[in-house]
Amino acid sequence: MTETAHQKRGGKPFHSILEPHYDFIREQRQRRKTWQEIADLLLSEKGIRVTFHAPYLFYRRRLKRATKPHWEDAENNSEFQPGRHNATASRPQSRSAPLSAAPTFKRPDPSNLNTEEFT
To answer: Is 107 part of any domain?
Structure first.
């Protein structure tokens, strides 16, 4: 690898510009504002110019992450309740049926075939 490839690794992780304004976006959604109206309010009140997709994608991602704990904290967080009930987890484990005996099939011997009937 080149030296520039090593310089690009690591570094500061990406943080959304909308992160400090999550409560504002949530409040506007509770007031039934559209995503376009929220984007316009972010520009007029907070000075952040974004398309209407940006707050939508940010809000959806933030809600999704809130339903499950971080993988490192999952073992320590016994109070975690998943957002949805997993129906497959409550079912008893099914056992596979035993295999039936192999059928007794004998391959026909081509030398014993009577092909004169078909001509």
So the answer is: no
**Residue in the block written with tokens 């490839």:** 5
Q: What's phi and psi for 83, nearest 5 deg?
A: -65, -35
The DSSP-derived string for 50-75 is: --THHHHHHHHHHHHHHTS--TTTTT
Lookup result for tokens 């059928």: 103
Residue 85: C-alpha distances to residues 3, 22, 74, 91, 100 (Å): 49, 26, 17, 12, 37
**How many domains are there within the chain?**
1
Q: How many CB atoms within 10 Å of residue 89?
A: 7
Asked if 58 contacts 44 with a C-beta cutoff of 8 angstroms, the reply is no
Q: What is the pLDDT of residues 37-78, one digit of tens each?
A: 999 999 999 999 999 999 999 999 998 888 877 666 655 555
Domain span holding position 23: 16-67
More confident residue, 80 or 111: 111
Cβ–Cβ < 8 Å for 80, 74: yes
